[in-house]
Design a protein that fits this description.
9% strand, alpha+beta, 280 residues, Glutaredoxin, five-stranded mixed beta sheet, elongated
Amino acid sequence: MLKKSNIAAAILLSGVLGGVVAQGISHFSHAEAAKPASPFSPIQEARIGKVAADYLIAHPEVLIKVSEALQARQEAAAVKAMTEGVLAYQSELLHDPHAPSYGPADAKVVVTLFFDYQCVYCSHLAPELTKLMKANPQVRFVFREWPIFGDRWPASRLAAETGLKIWQQKGAEAYLAYHNELYATGHNEGALTENDIRTAAGAMKIAPSAIAKDRDVQAELTLTGQLATDIGLTGTPGLVVMPAIGATAETITVIPGMTDQAVLQMVINKAAGLTDPVKK
C-alpha cells in the first residue's frame, strides 16, 4: 500500500515533469513568427500530464530510481571537488611534522585519517584500520586530530590535545598505543571520560589547563580543522589515500565516511600503481 507521502511525491514530480513537457512544447509558441505552433492542444497536454501522474503513482519505484540517481550524481560531484581540494593542499597533507604519523617516512603511499574520538563511525573504523596497518607496513598513516564534537563533549577536544602532546613528547609508538586504547574503551557519542584519557595516556601526566594553552597543540588543531574544511570534508571519519609523490586525480581517493579494510586495501593498491586507476 502506497504511503500518502509517496503519492504526494509522485504527484509533485509528475507536475514538475508535466511542466517541463509543457514548457518544452510551448517553447515553439513563444516564437510564433519563426516556428510552428504546438502540435498538442491544451486538453491533450492536460491528458499527457495526467497519464504521467498516474504512471508515477502506479510505479513509485521510478521515483526511487530517479532519487538514487540524483544522489549518486551529487555524491560523485562532491568527491570530485574534494579530490581537487586534496591536489591543491597535498603539501599540507603530506608534509606536516606536527601531525601524528606511523610508518616509513619514505612510504610511496600515504593514508590520512581525519577523526574524532567521540565519533561512533570512527570507533567502528578503528579495528579495520588496525588490520589495514598490520597488512601494509610499507604505507604511512597520518592521524589528523579533528575534535568536531569538542563543543558538545569537552572530552573530545581533551583527547585530541592529549594525543598531540603524546606525539610531541613520545613519538609514533606511544601515540598509536594511546589512539588504539581510547577506541578500545568503546566509549563514544559523549561516553568518553577524562579518566579514560588519563588511563590511555599512561605515565604521561595530563594537565588540561596547560594543554589548552599549548600553542603548538592548539595551532595544529586549528590547522587540521582548516585543512579539512579546505578539502571539503564535512564530518568524521574522512580518509584520503594518495601517492606520496606525483599524485593525480586518478590516483587519489577521498572517502568521506565509514568504510572497511577491503575497500581501503583496494585504494591503497591503486595509489601504489598496483592496479589501473579508474578513469574519471
